[in-house]
Amino acid sequence: MALTPRSIMHPEDAAALDKLESLPLFTPLVKSFIKMFDERFLNRVTSLHYIRLGPGQLPEIHEVLVDVCQRLHLNVPQLYLEVHHEPFSYTLEASNRYIIVSSSLLDKLSLEQIRVVFAHECGHIFFNHVLYRTMTKMLIRYGGELPKPMSTLSVPLRIALLYWYLRSELSADRVAAVITGDIRPVADTLFLTAETPADIVASLNLQKIVEQTASLASDQDSTIQRLMESLILSDNEHPFTTSRIEALLNWEKSPDWPNLLDNPSPECQHCHHPLHYDDSQCRHCGEINPEAIGINHSLNE
Predict the structure, then answer these.
(1) What is the pLDDT of residues 77-107, one digit of tens each?
(2) Which residue, of 48, 83, 229, 245, has the fewest CB within 10 Å?
(3) pTM of the model as a whole
(4) Where are the domains of the chain?
């Protein structure tokens, strides 16, 4: 199967995104956020507080990101290192995209595991998640301190954002699995970034984890139950690790599982110039890129 955003997006991510973008107040909210979010301020913060990585600064780390982006046909985002004792990574977007990784994460992981992290973060770019995720992250962290209308966002819209935010992780995990060609490195990296000791991670039986979570599954699981799980997880900003691994292993068994990443570069259907999957429009003729998902094109109006 062709590796495109639409072909491998997790169905729960797609359904939650469709619901989110259909809410009456969502588009005005995003437009307000775009106006509020100061690109110059973000540039200043990243330049003053983080170390930019590239060919002249930790080139072996930056090259991993470049390779991942080439295989996914993405523009290479700016990469920054944050000196911090906790292992983490995240992606932000204003007019540019930024991936930020912590020093603890680089110290804890091998290059192959760092590749998993970059593939996951690039997965969010691949699906055009980043603008909405940046907005949600700001709401989670700062809430009522934000200017209006962000600070007065209705509870249903907050819950819908958080519900989608967590399910967007499932799609990004799929990209990481495709880039590595195997579920195990992704699972190991998830546990390591959750600060599980390496010797324990190496001995974990993933199939037993699936059996454990499957035994708790119920045909009567409701949307309310899933919403409650989202609220419980709001401080962590990630789904349960075991749930993410179960989702990947189930996908691996499906006929959709792509064993090899041999994806021809996309091209504009109008002028036939090459595209990147994170281009919402062709840079040559302005035609909408039909494969760029997760972006409400009415925001550009």
Answers:
(1) 999 999 999 999 999 876 678 999 999 999 9
(2) 48
(3) 0.86
(4) 7-263
